[in-house]
Amino acid sequence: MKITLISIPVRDQEKAMRFYTEKLGFIKKKDEPLGGGNRWLILVSKDWVDGPELLLEPAPNHFEPSKVYQDALMEAGIPWTQFDVENVDSEYERLTELGVEFSVKPTEAGNVKYAIFNDTCGNNIQLVQEL
């Protein structure tokens, strides 16, 4: 058994796709219409194109419990998921220059350094570097 796909709930798939590709550097792998304005929108890491796929899921627009859970995590400042990076400080600088808003600046905690940013689509995302 292995992880092949994870989903992130987003309120606006087009806005999310632009953020995740233009700011974070992910690559669009699939973009298929599902009807009702929804898409099967899959991204992959440019550094690991055969790794796990990221689905930009429009669930909060159609399933109220998903929206409630997403809102609760955001309000509490809890990340939806995390992305590993080689250097949190350099990613923080790069993304800050692109206008990404961080709620937690690079912070050391044990054997990791992390930072948390707002993906502009309803989620906090954590960047993690192993020290």
UniProtKB/TrEMBL annotation:
InterPro entries (UniProt xref): Glyas_Bleomycin-R_OHBP_Dase, Glyas_Fos-R_dOase_dom, VOC_core
Domain VOC, residue spans: 2-130
PROSITE patterns: VOC
Signal peptide: none
Any Pfam family the entry gives: Glyoxalase
Domain of life: Bacteria
Coiled coil start-end: none
Protein name: VOC family protein
